[in-house]
Amino acid sequence: MEIQFLYWNINNKPPSFISEIKKIAANIDVLLLVENTEIADSLIEQELGLYKIKYKTSFDETQYTPKFYSRFQNDELECIGVATSKRLVFTSLKLQNSDELLIGGIHFPSKLNYDDLSQSEIARGYVQEIEEVETIRNNTKTLIFGDFNMNPFEPGMIELSAFNATLSEVEAKKICKQFHYKKYNYFYNPMWSFMGDRNYLSGERKQPGSYYYSKSPYWNVYDKVIMRPKVIDIFDFSSIKIIDSLGSEKLVNGDFTIKKDSYSDHLPLSFKIKL
Fold first, then answer.
1. d(CA 184, CA 177)
2. What digits encode the pLDDT tens for the residues 245-262?
3. Inter-residue contact 44 to 66 (CB < 8 Å)
4. What's the rounded mean pLDDT across residues 86-113?
5. Mean pLDDT of 9-19
6. What is the DSSP string of 112-138?
7. What is the per-residue pLDDT across 132-158, written as a single tens digit (0 to 9) for each?
8. Would you say 234 and 273 are in contact if contact means Cβ atoms under 8 Å apart?
9. N or C: which end of the chain has fewer CB atoms below 10 A?
10. Three-state SS letters, 45-85
């Protein structure tokens, strides 16, 4: 069974923006929206046929709280926890005849407010919360996606005590890295392949990232999906796509810069898994 995911940081767009999301959400099973403060859950249900995943406990959501919507029933995809910061939401997908998959939606704090050192420290805290959930569920079949606000090469993504997200599948499948008597579990990060503006097979130019900022390195891969080694064999890597158009409507200019009047400052991301 194929399950299609779509994520978008929509930059607090108004309710009318649902018509734009609809252009790329026709076959989506799980939708993750970040910075959605204006579009009501009922409107998403009405227009997209996707239902908000209810939290186990009530709390005041912020603009940074990731929101999951899905075609699945509540007993198939359910919320199992929310991080202290409210910026990381954990869900459990358990379909008939398949193992449980832990799915996290993240909206990591921005570089506008935190430097590399601070982001690394925050990442360590998030990883601790992820590992707590994995321990409680006795499961490391975990996938995290959303707005990480860090490039794949940055300390918070690659440091052992942070996300420890390697670019190598071979290395990731070793499960963990041992350093100074302690083991650090790997994430695998396939989004390294989306950096740069050339397709290495064809040599043609391609979309160089998901978020444009006017300072070096200009294009960034902040929007991504990472996974524990147990997810690698069920992930469809050919399906990962940074979406640069809504049908005939381009989200970027010919020189691959985001249009000034574009729909969001982030581009959407889609991918599939096969259970």
1. 5
2. 998 888 888 877 777 666
3. no
4. 95
5. 95
6. TT--HHHHHHHHHHHHHHHHHHHHHHT
7. 999 999 999 999 999 999 999 999 999
8. yes
9. N
10. HHHHCCEECCCCCCCCCCCCCCEEEECCCCCCEEEEEECCC
Is beta strand 67-70 parallel, antiparallel or unpaired with respect to 30-34? antiparallel
For residues 42 and 67, is the Cβ–Cβ distance under 8 A? no
Query: Mean per-residue pLDDT for 161-175?
Result: 98
Residue with tokens 């574009």: 262
Q: Which amino acid is at 227?
A: M
Domain spans of the chain? 2-152+209-274
My answer on whether omega of the bond before 217 falls inside 30° of 0, hence cis, is: yes
Given this model, what pLDDT does residue 26 score? 92
pLDDT of res. 261: 67
CATH number of 2-152+209-274: 3.60.10.10
Close Cβ partners of 256 (under 8 Å, ≥ 6 residues apart): 197, 205, 207, 208, 219
The encoded tokens of residue 76 equal 């198939």
pTM over cut 0.70:
yes
